[in-house]
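Morning run. Coffee first, then this:
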Amino acid sequence: MPGPLTETAVGVRLLLRVTPKAGRNELAGVRDGRLLVKVTAAPEAGKANAAVIKLLSKHWRLPASAFEITAGGAARDKTLMIHDVTVDQLPL
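And here it is:
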């Protein structure tokens, strides 16, 4: 099964499985080809999405503006585009 990161012409596509209202913010490994992300924020008014982007931008030391949710904005399974990076720059 392929991993959660796929390099594209404009950056890297990242497949996520998000758990909102978790006990803490963390990257919890990879399962079924998706990066598991847990955030304490509730899934309302985009708070969980913002928390996911904040956690990933801090983890990879990238600006939040580099991240774009391209699918699953209101779902637990999401697809993000991380612009202007390569897979090699994103260690899990």
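The chain has a mean pLDDT of 95. Good start to the day.
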